[in-house]
Amino acid sequence: MAKAPVVPLIVVWFTLLFALCLQVMPLAEGWQVYRPEWLGLLLIYWCMRVPDRVGVFHGFVLGLLLDLIEGVPLGQNALVFSVLAFLCALVFTRFRTYSLVQQALLVLVLLGLVQLLDQWVRTLSGDFSIHLAFLIPSFISAALWPWLATMFLALERRLFS
């Protein structure tokens, strides 16, 4: 069995910061609801790919950065992304054995759970919403997962083998 390539931590942080930029990139009015959860996708990818090097700490730091950029109460996104990284740590052994379609379904569940947590925290802080449109980014992100995972695996093999 071939040994997995070792990805430098600077590359991991660069991709996560790029995802943070994509997460806060301005979109036209009405299109914000269709924005994929870029930061969540990349956090899931790296937590599943190198679980010994990326975890809850990374989710917490990225969540704090997102809190500062978006101007939401400090710790809101930090909590959400920490929980996402923790859930990834719980399921990463099974996740690796799944096909890309099964992985996409698990990504849908993981992102849906953290979107639900995020909506609950927003409701506690006064931003009440009764509709389920907050789950749309989870569906779009799950649809993007097979492409993203395949692309990053190919890049890893090409650059770090």
Quick structural gist:
With 161 residues, the chain is mainly alpha-helical. Helices cover 70% and strands 0% of the residues.
Task: Work out the strand percent.
Answer: under 5%
Helix content: over 70%
Average pLDDT value? 93
- How far apart, in Å, are the first and last alpha carbons? 14 Å
Number of helices: 6
Low-confidence stretches: none
Rg, rounded, reads 16 Å
Q: What is the count of β-strands?
A: 0
What shape does the CA trace take? globular
Main pleated-sheet profile: none
| Helix/strand order | HHHHHH
Task: Characterise this structure.
The chain is an all-alpha fold. It contains six helices and no strands. Helix 1 (9-24) packs parallel to helix 3 (56-70), helix 3 (56-70) packs antiparallel against helix 4 and helix 5 packs across helix 6 (136-160). The longest helix is centred in the last third of the chain and has 25 residues, at 100-124. The two termini are 14 Å apart.
